[in-house]
Amino acid sequence: MTTNQNQMKIVLQMVSGYGGEFKTWRLPEAKADAYTDMDLYVEMAQLAEKGKLHALFMADTPALVNNIGVDTPMHSMDPLIAMTSVARATKHIGLVGTFSTTFNEPYNLARHLKTLDVISHGRVGWNTVTTSTGATADNFGTHIATRQERYGRAHEVIEAVQSLWGSWGENAYIHNKETGQFADLGQIKPVNYRGEYVKTSGPLPIPPSEQGQPVLFQAGPSGEGVELAGRFASGVYANPFTIEESREYRDILRDAAVRHGREADEINVFTGFMFTIADTKEEALARRRQVMAFDPEETSQRLRYLSAMVGLNLTSLDIDKPLPEGVRRMLQANWQDPRSPRAVELLQEGYSPLDTLAMGVINYHPVVVGTATDVADFLQEWFESGATDGFSIVPDLAHDGVKRFVEEVVPILQERGIFHKDYEGTTLRENLGLPYQYGLRK
Amino acid sequence: MTTNQNQMKIVLQMVSGYGGEFKTWRLPEAKADAYTDMDLYVEMAQLAEKGKLHALFMADTPALVNNIGVDTPMHSMDPLIAMTSVARATKHIGLVGTFSTTFNEPYNLARHLKTLDVISHGRVGWNTVTTSTGATADNFGTHIATRQERYGRAHEVIEAVQSLWGSWGENAYIHNKETGQFADLGQIKPVNYRGEYVKTSGPLPIPPSEQGQPVLFQAGPSGEGVELAGRFASGVYANPFTIEESREYRDILRDAAVRHGREADEINVFTGFMFTIADTKEEALARRRQVMAFDPEETSQRLRYLSAMVGLNLTSLDIDKPLPEGVRRMLQANWQDPRSPRAVELLQEGYSPLDTLAMGVINYHPVVVGTATDVADFLQEWFESGATDGFSIVPDLAHDGVKRFVEEVVPILQERGIFHKDYEGTTLRENLGLPYQYGLRK
Ligand SMILES: Cc1cc2nc3c(=O)[nH]c(=O)nc-3n(C[C@H](O)[C@H](O)[C@H](O)COP(=O)(O)O)c2cc1C
Ligand SMILES: Cc1cc2nc3c(=O)[nH]c(=O)nc-3n(C[C@H](O)[C@H](O)[C@H](O)COP(=O)(O)O)c2cc1C
After folding, report:
1. pLDDT digits (tens, 9 = 90+) for A203-249
2. What range(s) does the Luciferase-like domain occupy (chains A, B) (predicted)?
3. In a domain, B240, yes or no
4. Are the beta carbons of A77 and B105 separated by less than 8 Å?
5. Which residue of chain A is at minimal alpha-carbon distance from B41?
6. Are residues A222 and A299 in the same domain?
7. Which range of residues forms the domain containing residue B77?
8. pTM: predicted TM-score of the whole model, two decimal places
9. Domain end marker among B317, B349, B364
């Protein structure tokens, strides 16, 4: 709990094991079967730990949600099993997994996550999401409920889970051979949680971990999402496209925490960002062009979308050349997509339409395409402008992206004093500078 | 699939990590915190693998079901996490976990178990139980349904899970960098399972493991349990007390398999048995007396129960001495408890009431107290009499019991030709001599 507020926090997303660009699996350096190769996943996590990254972060939706005919899957086969595998092969890095409050029973969730927290010696985080994907509801023979109902249940599930976590008293694990007392039953009590959506009696017979219990995360910026985060979350995974947007969202979240009687600093915003690192900016861009070339049809679609973003039909022009000066002046950012100003900027700087696409202007997160220094500069600018507490970094291809980030970007950040040189403690809470918590906060 | 029918199969139960006797944790050689020590659990599993044991078997009930004030817990903190931990640290041993068909959603179960099967390279088994413990229902805010309903749902959950397992075609995982086809969507289809109790659409986006999909086990001898086993199970965990009882039960199960259109040999019965091994029978018995002495009150209760088993109030006699000859002739086995004849036998042989108790006559399974040869003799007799296909072995204290079994009993069995000298293949199916299966059997 002696983290330096002038240092950013970083979690790594390897998505399904390949990384955040769903066609990089075709690159020569990619491992085409990374999806099913847990050894590789564990190796990359160990590398991330060498780089002192705070945690792995795993998004999840229990359904098939993208086109795996040509793209790599959006999620790992199973976050719980990946987290356990990594836990057994690492010592410091945190393990944050996404588990739906809608499609899990609180007792099962509480049990899985607390056990994992115990065996990882206090390194687990739970990203609480309500799941709004229809395909998931189909997998559970139901439909997606209203946002109000989903979040109503989410509050209850989290209350129930945290209550179960607290149901085994902090000092109840006696295991004293001489006296013969294994556990102090006076400290192990049912919770008898009776909500509108879920009920559970407990107790959950699992002792505390070194950090007490898992840390909560949240993702999703709706009003209900912010309230859930303000009440429970110590980390929020966010996807702003600009520093201003990010700063504003961070302030909203900090206010929400305070409204729920917590310190503003108890909530850490992790903004997502993606990267392609090479020795030069040109090489990085060439790599992204290579990946784009794998799917010309998708590129055409994206060009049409880019046209809409900049208010000009680009497909009638030479898309592999800088736009003529006269045309550049006609570009106008579409206010409906916050990524548009950046697209206009790049085209005006002389990037061709194809290169502009390759720069990642239509990605889910801001993208840095360049050298390790470019990446470090981006992170520093966002961090020092108060836009965020840290980052959820997404390499284009995990197989080499993790290595480049750890070996090239991390040393620069450490040199500049904006990233820790070692883990502050042994638990995720300590490394994120969070207060201890056990059971449901009163 | 070249297992030798003249060789027994053996799975190991470490229960919550301590073993099957809930007070052995107080012995000097015990590790008092085994419950939370995954390193120790993994080490013991590795030792079991050295002994070529076929699998670890983990019973489970998602509730606190015994008196952990003085006893070690009945179950591990979380079977899935223990199985994953072991999977990552072993290469051959199977991993059979108990997961309730009542308190899990089929999609979550299918996903967890198939993922674990993939990352363990085909070593997973699922012990299907319906869970009849009230405390569990309380943890899920419900009540225990009738047996008919529980088994009705069990059939559906297994159908749904196996259908989901088969929803990703066996050859759908293309991941060909050149063609850019990651998966063959023509082979990945929804299952649209619509039962009375559960519904799920799928598909489950997980490729087959080396054994296709996990092996099914069952436990519980009710008529409904036998039908479930006959239809789905390749392994049954049984608790007979005599060879005759076991043979009869095995025949019933084999008939049930045939009735469901399967080969009788596709169902393997694993009878549970417990042991205490020492260099001499006397030492083994002394160790059990030492454990009994930890709880004099429980011993008194057990003496009263033993009295009822043998039709004579033993508590008025000197319980630490052989019964007087005249008294021995008065003993009569209580037909309501199948363990009674053995109790009478031991008392008549001259074991004192306390020693008779220490011999384990009131245990959940038959108990062998003696040398490694005594244990081997017991296993051979049961196996060669056609009582069983194998055993689910439960050491009194796992910490040393696994070692003694592996180092002392296994070589004797191998010497006698009744236990394999090495794993037959790389998957649980191969090592159990089971046919390949993928998806729901038609
Ligand atoms: C950055 C970010 C990451 C998200 N990750 C996940 C995820 O892993 N799984 C999931 O089900 N939903 C995820 N969501 C979706 C949100 O939890 C939420 O459902 C979504 O934003 C819809 O909002 P609402 O449910 O508040 O209406 C994510 C959202 C954002 C903004
Ligand atoms: C040897 C054996 C092992 C069992 N293991 C478990 C277990 O691990 N978890 C569980 O919930 N039930 C277990 N059971 C209970 C059975 O699944 C079943 O619920 C019980 O025998 C009651 O029978 P019924 O449900 O068929 O009425 C076991 C039963 C036997 C005989």
Report:
1. 999 999 999 999 999 999 999 999 999 999 999 999 999 999 999 99
2. 37-388
3. yes
4. no
5. A119
6. no
7. 9-278+371-431
8. 0.98
9. B364
